[in-house]
Amino acid sequence: MHRILKREGIMAKTLISKRFLYLIAAVIWGIPGLIIAMKGIRAYTAMPADELWWLCLITLGVLFSFIWMFQRIVNRYCNLISVLPDKTTIGHTFPCRGWILIVCMSCLGIALKFIPCIPEEFTASFYSGLGPALVVASCLFVKKYMTQCE
């Protein structure tokens, strides 16, 4: 990794403070989180009112499960960022498998919306839990950025 950072040329011109990697991670997690949450809320508005109580319970289960999982992932990524040199590249925001995970999860999320056999209730409860959990993870990255500024 350090060999990449020491090369001359393009890589040397794109070095940024590692502190900003926390903000980049926050954007990468937060924007999709907002989009997914809006899709979930939009799906909820099409549901009959008598089904909303149990869908809300499922949404809470999804939300807390993802918050628990994402908190562990955010802590792992923050630890990886903290050991980087003071100047690094945007590509070091996540390890390679993290970027692959982001791409795969994004593709799966888009595909879920277009699979006709998946009920709207699933979409509403899953997206309404996943979206806010991603936003919470984004806030954790912002919090880490703020503590690095002190």
Provide a compact summary of the structure.
77% of the residues lie in helices and 3% in strands.
Which helices and strands, and how do they pair?
Blueprint lengths: L1 H5 L3 H4 L2 E2 L1 H27 L6 H31 L4 E2 L7 H19 L5 H30 L1
Antiparallel strand pairs: 1-2
Helix pairs in contact: 3-4, 3-6, 4-6
Question: Which structural traits does this protein have?
Answer:
150 residues; single chain; disordered N terminus; mainly alpha; two-stranded antiparallel ribbon
Would you give an account of this structure?
The protein has a two-stranded antiparallel ribbon with strand order 1-2. It has 150 residues and is mainly α. The N terminus is likely disordered. The chain has one domain. Helix 4 packs parallel to helix 6. The protein is elongated and about 55 Å long. Helices cover 77% and strands 3% of the residues.
Rounded radius of gyration (Å): 18 Å
Helix and strand sequence? HHEHHEHH
What overall geometry do the principal axes of the alpha carbons give? Answer: elongated
Uncertain residue ranges: 1-5, 7-12
Q: Which percent bin holds the helix content?
A: over 70%
Please give the domain count.
1
Total count of strands: 2
Placed side by side, the strands forming the largest sheet appear as 1-2
What class would the helix/strand composition place it in?
A: mainly alpha
